[in-house]
Amino acid sequence: MPVRPAEHTGARVARNRVLRHLTQQGLANRAHVSASLISKVERGTAPATAAFLGAVARALAVSVNELTGQPYIEELRADQIDQLIQPIREALDVYDLGPDPEILPRAHAVLADEARKLGETIRETNLRAAAAALPALIHETTTAAHLTPSDAMWRTLAYLYRSAYDIAGKLGYSDLSTTALDRLDWAAVRASDPVLASLRQYFRGQAYLRAAQYNIGKRIVLAGLSTIKQAEPSLERNVVTGQLHLGAAILAARDNRETDVTGHLGEALRIAKITGPAEKVLWCSFGPANVALHRVAAHSEMSNFGDAVEAAEGIALDTLPASRVGHHYADLARAQMWSGKPDAAYLTLRMARKAAPQQTRYSPLVRQTVEDLASHYRRVPDNFANFAHWIGM
Question: Domain spanning 1-69: which CATH class is it, in words?
Answer without folding.
Answer: mainly alpha
